[in-house]
Description:
By secondary structure, the chain is of the alpha/beta class. The protein folds into two domains: 3-121 and 202-220, Rossmann fold (3-Layer(aba) Sandwich), CATH 3.40.50; 130-194, ACT domain (Alpha-Beta Plaits, 2-Layer Sandwich). 27% of the residues lie in helices and 28% in strands. The chain has six helices and 15 strands. It has a six-stranded mixed beta sheet with strand order 2-1-3-6-14-15, with helices on both faces. Strands 8-11-7-12 form a four-stranded antiparallel beta sheet, with helices on one face. The chain has a three-stranded antiparallel beta sheet with strand order 4-5-13, covered by helices on one side. The longest helix has 13 residues, at 29-41.
Amino acid sequence: MNEKELVGVRAAEYIKDRMVVGLGTGSTAYYTIKKLGELVRNGLNIKGIPTSEQTAALAVEHGIKLVDFKDVERIDVAIDGADEFDADLNLIKGGGGALLREKIIANAASAFIVIADSSKGVNKLGDFPLPVEIVTFGAEMTSRKIAELGCEPKLRLSGTQPFITDNGNYILDCDFKQIESLEELEKQLNMIPGVVENGLFVNMARRLITIENGELVEITR
Length: 221
């Protein structure tokens, strides 16, 4: 197994019968969903809430029953990847373009488990450009306001056209270098009219499954 598969499969061990599970998006969460599909075929009874249309299609392909928020009272566990994580389990997410739904589901879950290969660990967040989801109306003005916070926002493209999220919005990838105050930046970004959400996940993860020196490790907080 590669590192992504190792951590993805391990996370599936935390899913028990009758749980409602938040299903993440991306190349690492893929392995969790694949493993959960195998467990479902062997009798595991779960319901999934996907963080993206891509994940919804993958879950259906693997036989996982999906539900809407209106159909459940809680999410027991959410499992998702990260583009960066620090020693305090703060994250940058959104490289796959699903950060808004990912944050809604992670916030709603009783437990949020992060799965990441060894390359995603950093001393300080910010080497990975921070994704910020914005509405399309007034996007240029919103981008200029974000730039005033000390970054270079770049409109994410899909080919030659703007990338459009599942929510019908744009994403700006914002190079802040190393971020000194995560909570402050998160608040400042979300106070800008036109910003829907940003990819800083601060004090949300409770467990990280990753690889250190070739071995699986789990870190909790």
